[in-house]
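Protocol step 4 of 6: structure prediction from sequence.
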Amino acid sequence: MRSATPASKSCRRSDASRSWTRRPGSGSRSTLRGGACASASPSSSASAASASPGSCGACASRTSRSARPATGCATWDEDSRDPTVASVSFADPLWLVALLAVPLALLAYLHNRSRAKRYAVRFTGVQTLRVAAMGSSSWWRHVPAALLLAALAALTLALARPHQTIRVPIQSASIVLVTDHSGSMQAGDVAPTRLLAAEQAANAFIDQLPSAARVGVVTFSNTPDTVQAPSADHGVARQAIDSQSALGATDTGDALAVALALVHQGMKPAPSAIVLLSDGAWNTGQNPVVVATQAGRDRVPIYTVALGTDAAVVPNPDPYGPPLSAPPDPRSLAQISHASGGRAFTAQDGGQLNSIYQRLGAQLSSTERRHDITATFAIVGLLALVGAVVVSLRTVARLP
């Protein structure tokens, strides 16, 4: 049973980006950089961040951006970008300052055009003047200037060496879902119960993974009691998830140790991660933070989800006693994720839990690929430059 002492929803943030990346010295194993805690709860307050290494700062709750306290923690709505959307970065961003020349050149061109209209020219060849005037007023005459500006912009961007980052599916990912089904998971603050909501979210998580992704399951209460090795047979994983009952204590450390051992059973190193869902601190077995530290050394991040609200209660084993308080303990879970290089989340209802699992599923089943697109901008710039020359010559040739 969980302690009745409410725990603040807290975390410690590190890197803002979360993606599968190669780490030096890790061979072919990949991991997800992280360490921040994203709160999915709609509460309107957050505590100040702690400076001690054993503790972690509080997560800002999901409120409006203007009212969000500056705690330094990532909130869920701030990091809910679509992970499949491509992004562009620059290796030499200082060259982007040169883009200021584009609007300056445009202003200079417009200024020269306005000055030219102020002067009248005396000319006796009226017919020739009429033809020239018609040519000078045509929009075609502005095309060379527009192409020159486009060439300047494209070549400047090429000098900045742009790279496009996209996410592509990982077919060999190995993910272990570790789910708490201790007595406090019978609380009904998350409809229909915490445990049933966790099962539904876990099944939805599996549904969005690539068919070749290997999924393992560890469920625990007093001890790890259901162990399913990572397999591409997702039906077996769903069976293990759906066979739980809320009962007993919370042996988080041993469950994580079993999950870590399952990850290492693979024939070859593959991108691996552990997703831990619980509602409170461990109260039996080995210290989970120690296991998480080892997972961090092995490049296996642990992503934790604290489920429940502070108002939750569960039945008292004493039939004559009052219901027992069963608040979640996100602080303990955030320490686990931080020690492993993962990330911590909090969820107070089924909708938030599903959103978190959906986000994690998209991230853990894909990896970032960078493509150098410098040549693309250079080619566009050169083509625009050649086009400006060709159009200029054609415009001059049209004059009598």
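Step 5 (inspection) to follow. The chain is about 35% helix and 20% strand.
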